[in-house]
Specification:
This is HTH cro/C1-type domain-containing protein. The chain has 419 residues and is mainly alpha-helical. It is built from 20 helices and no strands.
Amino acid sequence: MERVTIGERIRERRAELGMGQGRLAVKVNQLAGLTSGGLTRNEISRYERGLRKPHDWLPLIARALGVSIGWLTGAPAPPSLALADALAQLEQDLGMMIDRRTFLTDTSGLALSVLPSGVPSSKAVPPEAVTYFRRRLDDLWRADAAQSPRRLVPTATAQFQIVAHLASNSHGDLRRRLWQTAAAFTGLITWLHQDAGQLDQASAWGTRTLELAHRAHDKQLVAHALTNRAMVDMDLGDGPTTVEMASAALADEKRLCAKVKVQALQQAAHGHALVGDRRACDQLLDRAGRLVDRIDDDHPWGVATRTPLYLEIQRATCYSRMRLGAEAVRLWDQVMPSAEWRSSGVFAARQAAALADSRRPDEAVAALEAAVHVAEKVESARLRQELTTAWERLAPWHQASHGQEVRALFDGIGLPITP
């Protein structure tokens, strides 16, 4: 796997902060006590393009970006640093002050902030906070389309901690909407841990999402949380439990909005695919298909339903799980042109498995090459598992040239495979 460069880290962090290269240069020069000369925007551009290395400027660039030198050189940003950054940005954007000593959490990262005596009254929490954090949530979902989940977990967790703190210091409708937003963040964190292959953490955060959804008295969010839990069970390969959790989400179906119904129906379809029930799988996806055009809500979660060809992606995945070969290949051929770059790796690996089932090894290897190209750039346990599955489907060709090609591809990203 290619190592992330210092320049890429500088660019990534600037983007998170909404800071231009010129602004970064000014901030670094201020920290250095320089009123003229010093670091320039063009020099930062050279760093980000890998043409030069910061060397002596590195400590000041790290301070200006609010990260450690270790993070800039490749280590993940610690959650405490992400929280400090998020608090500083909130204070700047909303003009409110928060006592940072209140943000004490247990080692699991799931405890709410410990509230001190003399906390600000609810009037200190502006109603604009809900809109502000829902925008941050949208930003994180967009970032998920391009970045590795482990990089986003500290930022998402820090945002959740602040929202939970604000909710605890509010009441009435504002309190309820803040708890809804907090639950939306825990839903995202559940997904990030799941994508990183940390299923125990995903389960814990999924439970937290369900708790907060009930706390917010939001039936839509409760059903969404149950669907999230079904998704974790799906990754565990537990078809019956996936069906049960998705069915629980649909228990009060008449009162659910179209988005939640679609989410639950397609997740139930995955559960039936895991147990090999194609008829039930198709029926559920067909039901979901009749609802997609009715998705018009602004719930800050479940953005995947807005993806072009969303249900075709789900059906193609289900058909790959059931090893339907040519039918799965036909669907993947339709889906691939619409895939976002990061998702395209997972889809290409699933397409490769379907091509192998259709006894088209040359094309399967080509699809795996595309998937590996994405895996070189992003750290996704889900993608690596899909690559392993595709390799298993290529078993008849393991000793042929096709197998040698795939071994070489997987060696390049350090992915171990069975002989």
